[in-house]
Amino acid sequence: MDEEDRRGTRSGDSTEAESEGWSAGPGKASRAHYDALDSVAWYIDNSDRERQQVARKAPNGFGLYVMLGNVWEWTADVAADFPSTPQRDPKGPARGTYRVMRGGSWTMPAWFIRVSNRYMLDPESQSNHIGARCAGDLP
């Protein structure tokens, strides 16, 4: 693929909406019940209190591993309030102090691990319970 073709594609962190949709699995709303949490997520009571390798839990319906728990995952979105009307993949502000992370981490109790869980943090922050999942558009 030449350079001109590459400029039309997107790569990097997933948006909040993408993260929420991929976590729930195909045909499931973000508020859906998950499979047994122990089978798909790492949290404080099952992680030996440390982050874990990704493919040690069952994949979700999209074949993605550990979309909940283990590490908070950065999203591409700048932190802002949600729009007041329903939207598909809403775009947040272009600039801001904090970025959004989703999904919880191994440091959290089981009741805290859910798709809709979001946290805002300075993007320069580093920790062993923060990670990223790259995403991109296929040509």
What is the element layout, followed by pairings?
Elements: H1 3-6, E1 11-13, H2 16-24, H3 37-40, E2 41-42, E3 68-69, E4 72-78, E5 99-102, E6 118-121, E7 130-132, E8 134-136
Parallel strand pairs: 2-3, 4-7
Antiparallel strand pairs: 1-8, 4-5, 5-6
Tally of DSSP helical segments:
3
CATH superfamily annotation: paralog of FGE (formylglycine-generating enzyme)
> In CATH's first tier, which class applies?
Alpha Beta
Instruction: Provide the domain count.
Output: 1
Q: What's the count of strands? A: 8
The chain-level structural class is alpha/beta
The best one-word shape is: globular
Residue fraction in strands: 15-25%
**CATH fold assignment:** paralog of FGE (formylglycine-generating enzyme)
Give the neighbour order of strands across the main sheet: 6-5-4-7
Which residues form runs of ≥5 with pLDDT under 50? 1-9
Distance between the termini: 10 Å
Descriptors for this entry?
single chain; 139 residues; paralog of FGE (formylglycine-generating enzyme); 4-stranded mixed sheet; two-stranded antiparallel ribbon; 3 helices; 12% helix; globular
